[in-house]
Specification:
By secondary structure, the chain is of the alpha/beta class. It contains 13 helices and 25 strands. It has a six-stranded mixed beta sheet with strand order 11-10-16-21-24-25, with helices on both faces. A four-stranded mixed beta sheet has the order 22-17-18-23. Strands 1-2-3 form a three-stranded parallel beta sheet.
Length: 397
Amino acid sequence: MTEYGARCDVRNVRLFHMHLEGEASFAKPENAKHFRSISFFIGGNVRPAVQTGHADCIPIFLHEIPRVFNEGYIKPDIALIHVTPPDHHGYCSLGTSVDCVRSAVSNSTRIVALVNKYMPRTFGDAIIHISHLDFAVEHHKPLPVHPVKPPSKEEQQIGKYIAENLVVDGATLQMGIGSIPDAVLSLLTSHQNLGIHSEMFSDGVVELVKKGCITNNRKTMHKGRIVGSFCVGSEKLYDFMNNNPFIEMLVVDYVNDPKIIAKQPNMTAINSCIEVDITGQICSDSIGTRMYSGFGGQLDFIMGAALSEDRQGKPIIALQSVTSKGESKIQPVLKSGAGVVTNRAVARYVVTEYGIASLFGKSLQQRSYELIQIAHPDHREALEKAAFARLKMMPAP
């Protein structure tokens, strides 16, 4: 598409997309007159373009992205989708990415499909009949993979705190991709009857299913099924997903609806962030004024777990205490221009390798104390002084 657009001097094409894998050549400065990337969630491949003004983004809850198409805020001319080859009934599958694709497809003038035999066939809302496709192009290529990296000792400790103190038997889990979620999952091998209701899941789930720890039997909705909306991981994950009736891939305006999330038993939502201030404000989408990612599903699940109908929900923010440069991720105030994705009223548990800060019902004085206790020891004294300067009182339990 990018090569054709540049060669034929096509101008002002707007590309609305979620996180994308691989090279995003359309977002390079030399293609700015041809294509304008507009992200619902910023991936690393378009981040430089967003930060230099060659691309843009839409701040939005993940569960509300389909509304953008369904209610006509954006009217796509063409939906570019990625599907399996059709089965003997003529049905293709959207495979690893259902999320907001169905709403885009339903509201586009034309549907163009990349047909790939390496895409795993999944069920739920993933099915689309070949008669709905206007154009189809065969391109058989293995999917992008995210290799599983062993967690650092800090990430392993964070996982240990969460697994041993916050995840109970029968819990319904939401967690994203990365070393901390994988560390949590690797330490749940003694748990029973866990369930998955998550906008995405990755490799750590596969082993827990094989060990019989994830059964989804305690869920009251989609009992006995993993519920997801999109996935990225290794070949092992894609093989596990392929033709597996244990998995339902559903639209993101359902999976991430806080009202649906709140109905899940013992809903335990584990998310990460960029920084936290001493009052419990969570910045997850920017570094100061520089946009970094997006809202994603964090607040969907944090709110859903916080408002859980069984009052057993656990909204968790997990992060290492310091950046790779040694800067504290727990700060007196957020960086100037930083975006608050999860506000201080809904923040419940914050976990670092130094422990768990429980914030619900705590005053600013108590919150600052809890958060400073889980900050890196090298930064605690400075944080106490800064907390006193900000709050006009010393942090105290």
